[in-house]
Structure formats: structure tokens, C-alpha cells
């Protein structure tokens, strides 16, 4: 699909996300010739500065974070299409200025361009900006497409997500709204669907009859860095479980969609979320673990604990680790425990889905001294070492029938020998093309919050001792009890 002529406006253009991800992604799209011939980028943030100063900010961000060394001609070509507006998000005059600029750019190019508004500010401004876009009459145009791309977090709990949604739907039609969950833009996350629905051999075993449990891990080795202001309010559950991890879960558990069309895929995903019963307070006590990192190791260096991080209150009870046991209550999955775990400052960065099959029903080799027969395990690794691996039992060479597990592996790096695009490249391009499959729909986001909300509430009410784990470790021991009699895969 070609990308139509577009003016992309980024609210929060001097923020961390724009700096590290959005501007470099736009550069890489330009490098690949994926941007339309008529394309403008308007950067918006609260600081006043001339266009050239913002171009310098963008140039530096791209040089520092682009996945490829920028080519001077491509980079300057892109920057020549960049404009900047210093903004007060609550002031109608700012939106008038923006509108005038958009119209000027339309005229310069000889006709109207699509208008895409990307909200990458602090989340409290999302409703303010959305409402103001309507007041300024920027939310709809009969001649071109107008879209609103909204970064996470979409609300901080079920109620606030509903409130935000009611503002959004007052201003935009659902088909104009693109809610970002950047995990869906990752090649390896999309490969979960390719793996399941482009291969015939796994589908027959993809159910409760053959699968013992599923483990989804999103472990990070880094701490919270300089994000205390955001993170201490959010915690691991809101930061990663509510969005990325539940999205991974839906992709593993969904029924095959009839087509890759946005609503067909999202209809199947939301059914999975609706089949997860929100836990009662008692279930939260039994089926969740939260913990905070203490001093230890990060990348070979001694580091302090979470409470010593700059900007974190001494008595913070925010979790930096969460483990949860869930079940999808439907015919395919009833009785299969699905374990999710995520945390900062764990042993290493790894995002993976491990599908543990049941043991064979009868072991013919036992009497011959077999060792190490393990149930098959299929691991889809999103990062690092992106790929798929399947463990099999194999005969150890020799005169006796001894078995041990071996791995059959597909690795992206060696199979395709090319660098994958970054998630944001795919997402920005898809949004500009009006392709919504890799964005979350309103009902999905609300269903995600409906699962997470009771956990947040029960954790808030529980004033008991918080679990801890050493920085650089595999997490709190309480998480091993949660998963028993199963075991977490080693980190
Ligand atoms: C973000 C979280 O959504 O995802 C961060 O806010 C986290 O805390 C990040 O570090 C992880 O993303 P990725 O792409 O590095 O796995």
C-alpha cells in the first residue's frame, strides 16, 4: 500500500520517545523511500524555538538513535520538511497557529494532505489535546483522512481509560484512532501469528489436550533510569502487563482470524481477553506476586535498590516486578495456567513465550535407563536472539537407549540476514496508510484494564510486606511458589 501525502504532527516532539524512537523511525522510513513525496512533519512542544533549532534537536536525536548511520542527503531532505510550533496545550490560540500552518503546507503542496496527529505528551494532556482539536475544527475534514495516534498509557485504570475513551469518541470515529502498543509493531511479535497461522503442524496441538502451561516473560536488566516520576506512579503491572504482555497473550491464545484485516484480528483478540475472568481479591492473593528490586548488580556494576533511585520516595511500594497466573476460560484453554512475569533489573533482557507441552503418556524407554526425557517445549523469542526453538528428546549415541533434550532452532538473524525495522517504523507507516491491524481497539484496551484493575485495587488495599529481589537476580522466590508445581524457565 502506498503511503498517502501526509502532514504528521507530533505533540511532545522534544520528549524522550520522540527523541529515541519517533524521529529515528521517520529517518529510517525516509532512508527506505517509504515516506510519501509530499510529507511534512510538525513538531510541537511547550518550549518556544525557531524551526531551525528544532531541526537541530531532531538531527541530533537521529544521529544518536537511528539504527543506521544517517546519510547526510536523506537526513537534510527530511529535515527540510520539518516545522515547529511552541505550544500551550490548553490554549486555543496555539491550535489556531497549528491550523494556519497545516493549511499553509497544504497550499504550498498544491492541495490538502492527510492530517495525522500523534499524541506523545505526558498522558494528562491526551484528553486536553483531543478536545482542543475538535474545538479548532481539526478533527475531521471531508476531503482527506484525519487520524489520531495515541501513545500509551491509555488511562491509568479502568475508570480513567473509560473517561479518556469518552473524550476520544466524542471527537473521533474509532476508525480514525490508532492506539499504540509498540510490541505489536515488533517483527517477532507479528511472527507469533505467522508461526501459528502459516504452519499446519502446530495448530492440532495448540490446546488444553497437549499444552501443560504457557509462560510469557518480559524481563529487563536495566532499572528505571531517570523515569522515576512516571514509573513510581505506574509500576510494572501498568507499565508492561496491562499492555504488552496481555497483547502477547492474546496472540498466543486467539482463534485463527478469517483475514488479517484490522477488525477480524481484533475481534479474535478481544474474545480472549473477555474469556479471562477478572480475579477476586482472594485470587489476587494466590495468583499474583509483586516485588521491588534491592541493591545488587546491573551490567557488572554495583547498583542501589529501587528506593535509592533519584525521585523515588523512601516509602514507595511501587512494584518493579510482577508475576501473575491467569486462565483463559474457553474450550481451547480451560485448565491451562498462563504465567506472566516481568521485571526491571533482572538477570538479562529477554522477551519470550514458552509453550510447555505435556509429557508423553507412556515412557517406553524407562527400563533401559533413559535419562532426561523432558516434555517438548516451544519457545518463541521476541528479543534478543529473535527466533523459535523447539526442544525434542533425542537418543544419545551409544549402545543403550538413553534420551536427552536437544533444540531445533530457527534464528531470524541467520535465516533472513537483514536488519528488522524498528517497531515504530512499522507503526508510523501503518497509521499513515490507515492500516489498523497492529493497533489496539477501544474494547481491547478496556478489557485489558478490566483484568488488571482488580489486581491494582487488591494490591493497594494490602499493606503487608512487599517482596524484594536483588538487582541482577531472576526475581523474588515468591514467584517460584506461584508457579509451582511448574518451574520458570531460567533467565
Ligand atoms: C515500555 C515501558 O512500554 O516498554 C518501558 O514503558 C519498557 O518501561 C519498554 O522498558 C520495553 O520495551 P522494549 O521494546 O525495549 O522491550
Describe the protein:
Its EC number is 1.1.1.49. Belongs to the glucose-6-phosphate dehydrogenase family. It is an enzyme of class 1 (oxidoreductase). Pathway: Carbohydrate degradation; pentose phosphate pathway; D-ribulose 5-phosphate from D-glucose 6-phosphate (oxidative stage): step 1/3. Residues 10-191 form the Glucose-6-phosphate dehydrogenase NAD-binding domain. The strands form two sheets. Strands 7, 8, 9, 10, 11, 12, 13, 14, 15 and 16 form a ten-stranded mixed β-sheet that branches. The chain has a six-stranded parallel β-sheet with strand order 3-2-1-4-5-6. Helix 1 crosses helix 2 and helix 5 (126-135) packs parallel to helix 6 (158-171). 40% of the residues are buried. The chain is α/β, with parallel strands linked by helices and 491 residues long. The chain has 14 helices and 16 strands. 6-O-phosphono-beta-D-glucopyranose binds at residues 220, 239-240, 351.
Structure, briefly:
This protein is α/β, with parallel strands linked by helices and 491 residues long. The chain has helices spanning 16-31, 51-65, 72-79, 92-108, 126-135, 158-171, 187-197, 228-253, 262-274, 281-287, 412-416, 423-433, 442-461, 478-483; strands spanning 6-11, 39-45, 82-86, 114-119, 146-150, 177-179, 211-219, 288-298, 301-303, 321-326, 338-343, 350-357, 377-383, 387-395, 403-411, 467-471.
Roughly what percent helix?
25-40%
**What best-fitting shape do the alpha-carbon axes yield?**
globular
Terminal residue distance: 40 Å
Derived from helix and strand composition plus strand pairing, the structural class reads alpha/beta
| Radius of gyration, CA atoms, in whole angstroms | 24 Å
Largest sheet report: 10 strands, mixed
H/E series: EHEHHEHEHEHEHEHHHEEEEEEEEHHHEH
Bound molecules: 6-O-phosphono-beta-D-glucopyranose
Overall pLDDT level = 95
Number of helices: 14
Give the tally of β-strands.
16
